[in-house]
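User: Teach me something about this protein's shape.
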Amino acid sequence: MSALLFLPGFAADERIWELQRPKFDPQGFFVVGWSLGGQEAVRLAATSPEKFKGLILVSSFGKFLKSPDNPTGLSPALLRNLEKKLQADLSAGLEFFYQLMFTDGAVHPQINKMGHPSPAVIAKQLEMLKSADVRPLLPRIKVPTLIIQGDKDQICLPGTAIALQEKIPNSRLRMMKGVGHAPFLEAPEIFFDLLSDFIKQHDQP
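Assistant: First, the predicted structure itself:
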């Protein structure tokens, strides 16, 4: 089966990838995980390596929150602030989060094409951000891995990408300058080139 599996992140759905999906026609199976979606991508690549030719992690993390054993994570106080905003007014809280995704605070039009997730979905995803930790799986990943990170990301801090690269064998990190949490929207052509080069390199029969 030839396919690219795109996994969306927090407060997003599959429509977040619409600008990238039509550009690819791989001969193998690659999984692309963005933000929180990177957690599931890691699980798939670590537990079913025979199914994939490569893993692409975009603005992702092993563990989201900062802690003594995870100094590159986001401050728990910042996540609590977001949670309070979402609980007080879901639409306003989502708008606050979406603005954080972009370096200039201007929400990309693609975001507005998505439907708002339900309060139940948001609550579940917030709990995942608080507790999910796939770091033990990282050394088990055997497929070639590309890590793409914006150096201006305010949500998944650049240090998280460095930590991923240090733990995942056969991985490469590409830091995109001047880009925030959604590099495929802020700099789609550069992102496409990085993804395309990686797939061409590893998409062998």
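Now, about its shape. The beta strands are 3-7, 29-34, 54-58, 145-150, 171-176. The radius of gyration is 16 Å. If you'd like, I can walk through any region in more detail.
User: That's plenty for now, thanks!
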